[in-house]
Amino acid sequence: MHSIAKDHVQTVSELTQSIRGVLEVSFPFVTVAGEISNLRCPHSGHLYFTLKDETAQIKAVLFKPQQRYLPCTPADGMQVICRGRISLYEARGEYQLIVDVLAAQGAGALQLAFDLLKSKLAAEGLFAGERKKPLPLLPEKIALITSPSGAAVHDFLSMAQKRCAAVPVEIIPVRVQGAGAMEDIVEAIALCNERAENDVIVLCRGGGSLEDLWTFNEERIARAIAGSRIPVVSAIGHEVDFTIADLVADLRAPTPTGAAEMVVPSRIQLSAQLHNLTRRLTKTATDRLAFFRSVIEAHRKILGDPTSLLDQFRLTTDHALASLQFAFSSAIHQRQLALARLSQILASHSPQQRLEYQQQWVHELRRRLILAMLRQHERKRAALGKNAGLLHAISPLAVLGRGYSIVRQKNGVVVRSSTEVQSRERISVTLGHGGIDCEVKKIWPG
User: Fold this and answer.
1) 9-123, what's its fold?
2) Where are the domains of the chain?
3) 323-362 pLDDT, tens digit each
4) Of residues 157, 166, 163, the one with CA closest to residue 204
5) What pTM, to 2 d.p., does this model score?
6) Where do the H-state alpha helices sit in 148-266?
């Protein structure tokens, strides 16, 4: 029996994860045609089905968020084209197709590509209403990106001329179909944004089949429209035609003629609005003038003749002047009396007198301080003599002078008991005057 090296042993989970990684890297996107069978939709809302042909089958899943982009309702037996990624469902060890876009097989590759790009750009928010830019009320200059030889340019210019010939229209010629058309349109949009001379961009062409209008379903054109700082109006084909450019543009017009009606203001309507505003402004100004005239007249009646009040004002002025002079004189007299009182008070509080009094007071305080210091000195000296006598009375030297002595061992330890020394041990005895060295001959117990 062959032995298996432990380094090569994997768990089932590790192996399935490795296989899943290989599948997702090797098949990032695939397009598969087949027949739907075993279609089921559980409570989660996801669609699970089998995609099969005559000889093989593969399990597939279409998650609920992607179903809002479906152009048709899936059903068993339907021939479809699916665009998605290959992955591995690890719980069952089954590989499956995760579908991003599903279209009926009869719709063709272009319809599938349209649906795929539509779902991709919608997920990025390029169709969101909050990013749409408003059109100017009265554009000073319009950029018309179109084919100069088509009928669309004639329709747009005819309607623009009819509505307001004063608004200039700059025609930027481009190819609108076939090779190079996408590059022409992208460069034209970039040129308009670079020059910043136009207030609005109109992208238009006549009607046609899905193949004829496919240039306007290219991702580069969609991103160029979304990245334009100037508002973009799409007028592509007829009203029933619908392209990716229509979804990304700030405003969609059903036809080139409709675009001209949306972008170019009507001269007649502007004249009517201007006439209406002029009439309203004139009426408002006239009403305000009449109102102020009535206010002035009412005030004039209240005031009467100003000259009749002049004598009264003169009398009032004379009376006020006399009162002011009397008040001024009275105030001066009161200030003079107050000044005299203050002068007397100041003389009685002469700084020289106060200085002499303070000097006498300082001398007296100095005399008292010296006297108090001498008394305190005598008291402290007497207390010192008394405390010195007390200290001398309890001094060890005084005790020794009365016949007592201090016995120490050789190490200097004071002997307090006969049990602390031994026979023949040498000790020292400190007396009141001098000391002696002794040797223990006999020990008496205490």
Assistant:
1) OB fold (Dihydrolipoamide Acetyltransferase, E2P) (2.40.50)
2) 9-123, 139-265, 273-303, 402-439
3) 888 888 888 989 988 888 888 777 767 777 778 888 899 8
4) 157
5) 0.44
6) 151-163, 181-195, 219-226, 244-248, 256-263
